[in-house]
Amino acid sequence: MKGYYEPRSSSSCAACKFLKRRCIPNCIFAPYFRSDECKKFAKVHKVFGASNVSKILVEVPEEQREDTVNSLAYEAEARLRDPVYGCIGAIALLQRKMVELQHDLAIAKDRLARYATAAATATTTPSNSTSHDAFFNGHDFHGR
Fold this sequence. Notes:
Belongs to the LOB domain-containing protein family. It comes from Glycine max (Soybean). This is LOB domain-containing protein. InterPro entries: LOB (IPR004883). Pfam families: LOB. The chain is built from six helices and no strands. The protein is mostly helical. The protein is 64% helix and 0% strand. It folds into two domains: 81 residues, no CATH class; 44 residues.
């Protein structure tokens, strides 16, 4: 639940465990890095540094801190996966995929429209055998 965390037991938060320090009762990291989230904090720390993350959290309104930490964790994960482009690389890949899918959709819609037009034309135009029969039924070719 956003903005809510249960009071901690005596265990340290993931940040304090990682930094090997005693976790104080008003630890800025504790609500956002549970004791079992050491990998999450390690990634954020590696990319942004604990001091910078602490400064960011102090400056952000408390009701936005959880979203801020989630964003930092996502950005850190992306940066570690792709050190050059980070999140932007993932976003660009998704945008290219979206353009490709929109193109495919446009082609499919065009084909569907052509099939629908062909089907409509086929049902409104009399078949060849019907017009052939009407022509020959109206003429006496055998001299009778």
